[in-house]
Amino acid sequence: MNKINYSIDTRGSMIIGFNGKTAKISGELIMNPPVFYADIKAFNYWEPPFENEKITETEKAAIIDFITNDSIDKIKTKVIFD
pTM for this one? Predict the structure, then answer.
Protein backbone atom coordinates (compact mmCIF):
# COMPACT_ATOMS: atom_id res chain seq x y z
CA MET A 1 0.00 0.00 0.00
CA ASN A 2 1.37 3.40 -0.97
CA LYS A 3 1.67 6.12 1.66
CA ILE A 4 0.73 9.41 -0.01
CA ASN A 5 0.38 12.84 1.58
CA TYR A 6 0.25 16.30 0.11
CA SER A 7 -0.31 19.94 0.92
CA ILE A 8 -0.55 23.18 -0.99
CA ASP A 9 2.61 24.99 0.09
CA THR A 10 1.96 28.38 -1.52
CA ARG A 11 -0.41 29.73 -4.14
CA GLY A 12 2.10 28.43 -6.69
CA SER A 13 3.37 25.12 -5.32
CA MET A 14 2.38 21.80 -3.80
CA ILE A 15 4.44 19.35 -1.73
CA ILE A 16 3.77 15.66 -2.35
CA GLY A 17 5.03 12.79 -0.20
CA PHE A 18 5.12 9.26 -1.57
CA ASN A 19 6.57 6.32 0.38
CA GLY A 20 9.19 8.44 2.12
CA LYS A 21 10.14 10.58 -0.90
CA THR A 22 8.98 14.13 -1.59
CA ALA A 23 8.40 16.22 -4.68
CA LYS A 24 7.57 19.89 -5.02
CA ILE A 25 5.55 20.81 -8.06
CA SER A 26 4.43 24.14 -9.40
CA GLY A 27 0.86 25.13 -10.07
CA GLU A 28 -1.69 27.84 -9.51
CA LEU A 29 -4.27 28.18 -6.75
CA ILE A 30 -7.57 29.83 -7.62
CA MET A 31 -9.60 30.83 -4.56
CA ASN A 32 -13.20 31.02 -5.80
CA PRO A 33 -14.00 28.19 -6.25
CA PRO A 34 -10.91 26.64 -4.60
CA VAL A 35 -8.98 24.81 -7.32
CA PHE A 36 -5.26 24.06 -7.56
CA TYR A 37 -4.02 23.48 -11.11
CA ALA A 38 -0.89 21.32 -10.71
CA ASP A 39 1.66 21.43 -13.52
CA ILE A 40 2.10 17.79 -14.47
CA LYS A 41 5.04 18.69 -16.77
CA ALA A 42 7.02 19.84 -13.69
CA PHE A 43 6.37 16.54 -11.91
CA ASN A 44 9.47 14.56 -12.91
CA TYR A 45 12.05 14.14 -10.13
CA TRP A 46 12.06 13.62 -6.38
CA GLU A 47 13.59 16.16 -4.00
CA PRO A 48 16.94 15.49 -2.21
CA PRO A 49 18.25 13.02 -1.23
CA PHE A 50 16.49 11.27 -4.16
CA GLU A 51 17.03 14.10 -6.69
CA ASN A 52 18.59 11.79 -9.28
CA GLU A 53 15.65 9.40 -9.16
CA LYS A 54 12.96 10.01 -11.76
CA ILE A 55 9.32 9.70 -10.74
CA THR A 56 7.95 6.67 -12.60
CA GLU A 57 4.74 6.70 -14.60
CA THR A 58 3.30 4.15 -12.13
CA GLU A 59 4.11 6.43 -9.18
CA LYS A 60 2.62 9.45 -11.01
CA ALA A 61 -0.57 7.56 -11.79
CA ALA A 62 -1.01 6.43 -8.17
CA ILE A 63 -0.34 9.94 -6.83
CA ILE A 64 -2.61 11.70 -9.32
CA ASP A 65 -5.46 9.23 -8.75
CA PHE A 66 -5.19 9.53 -4.96
CA ILE A 67 -4.95 13.33 -4.81
CA THR A 68 -7.71 14.04 -7.32
CA ASN A 69 -10.08 11.73 -5.40
CA ASP A 70 -9.02 12.86 -1.90
CA SER A 71 -8.44 16.60 -2.16
CA ILE A 72 -12.00 17.91 -2.09
CA ASP A 73 -12.78 16.11 1.19
CA LYS A 74 -9.38 16.54 2.84
CA ILE A 75 -8.32 20.09 1.93
CA LYS A 76 -11.58 21.46 0.49
CA THR A 77 -9.74 22.31 -2.74
CA LYS A 78 -10.11 20.47 -6.02
CA VAL A 79 -6.70 19.52 -7.45
CA ILE A 80 -6.42 19.19 -11.22
CA PHE A 81 -3.22 17.89 -12.82
CA ASP A 82 -2.90 19.85 -16.01
Answer: 0.90
